[in-house]
Amino acid sequence: MRIYKAKDYADMSRKAANIVSAQVIMKPNCVLGLATGSTPIGLYKQLVEWFRKGDLDFSEVMTVNLDEYKGLSRENNQSYYYFMHQNLFDHVNIPVENTHLPNGMEPDSEKECRRYTELIQSLGGVDLQLLGIGHNGHIGFNEPGESFDKQVHCVNLTESTIEANKRFFASAEDVPKQAYTMGIKTIMQAKKILIVASGEDKAEIVQKAFFGPITPQVPASVLQLHNDVTLVADEAALSKLSE
Questions:
Q1: 136 is catalytic
Q2: Nearest 5 degrees, angle CA 109-CA 115-CA 120?
Q3: Domain map of the chain by residue range?
Q4: What DSSP letter does each residue of 139-179 carry, written as one string?
Q5: 132 Cβ contact list (under 8 Å, min separation 6)
Q6: Pairing of strands 153-156, 178-181
Q7: Which of the residues 87, 138, 142, 234 is marked catalytic?
Q8: pLDDT at 172
Q9: Active-site residue among 67, 106, 127, 234?
Q10: Active site residue 67
Q11: Mean local confidence (pLDDT), 161-182
Q12: How confident is the model at residue 243 (pLDDT cuts 50, 70, 90)?
């Protein structure tokens, strides 16, 4: 595992965006696995800026997102489809038919998980998978205790996740209770993995996940077994690591 230390969030975003842009330049028709959440927003902004300057071309890139809430339409401003269009897709020249997310409006979980798994395989797998890391070590919606051998699956969101998401919705009833997510096995099949982490509140989990025992209780710890992982984190997120 390679670790790049950044000064702050902006520096982390720039360094991580460099890795993504190198992938796009080296293989213009690459498959990028993308993540949502607050941590990658700066990275996406940087990619958009470089695209506008003429430094990057996304016309052949294909994307697959990690996850999507079940039961949320694409138009819902809390859906990950909406998030990706707001933060990246609408600002670069990626053909909309090259962008893929789980279909949150498909009620048949088994059918949707099978479709999305087959889709990823049909694209030849993911060249570079971007990940954030949750405070409890979750990656995607793979919460502590999930088995490491799952592919795309439908998860029941934990009470803490539902609670954390409440602020984004009009009422508690509107908060999705389930989500479609790539499983740990799917994530581990990516050729390269890039993790971004920022802030002191992530310091403890960064230390646990990457320098502690490999256990389903800390889902991100499995990444220690992958042969091409890069962690880009700011000083605060790395503050609990001894040099």
A1: yes
A2: 125
A3: 2-234
A4: BTTB-TT--TT--SEEEEPPHHHHHHHGGGSSSGGGS-SEE
A5: 35, 37, 39, 40, 139, 195, 196, 197
A6: antiparallel
A7: 138
A8: 79
A9: 67
A10: yes
A11: 88
A12: low
Are 58 and 24 within 8 A, CB to CB? Answer: yes
- The CATH class given to the 2-234 domain equals alpha beta
Residue 201 pLDDT: 95
> In this predicted model, what pLDDT tens digit does every residue of 1-23 receive, in sequence order?
999 999 999 999 999 999 999 99
135 is catalytic: no
Catalytic residue among 68, 106, 127, 143: 143
Residue 93: pLDDT band by 50, 70, 90 thresholds?
A: very high
The beta strand positions in the chain, using DSSP E, are: 2-6, 31-34, 62-65, 67-69, 99-100, 128-131, 153-156, 178-181, 192-197, 229-234
pTM of structure: 0.95
**Nearest alpha carbon to residue 164 among 65, 73, 38:** 38
Instruction: Verify whether residue 11 is a known catalytic residue.
Output: no
Catalytic residue (choose from 18, 76, 103, 136): 136
Q: Look at residue 166 in the predicted model and tell me its pLDDT.
A: 86
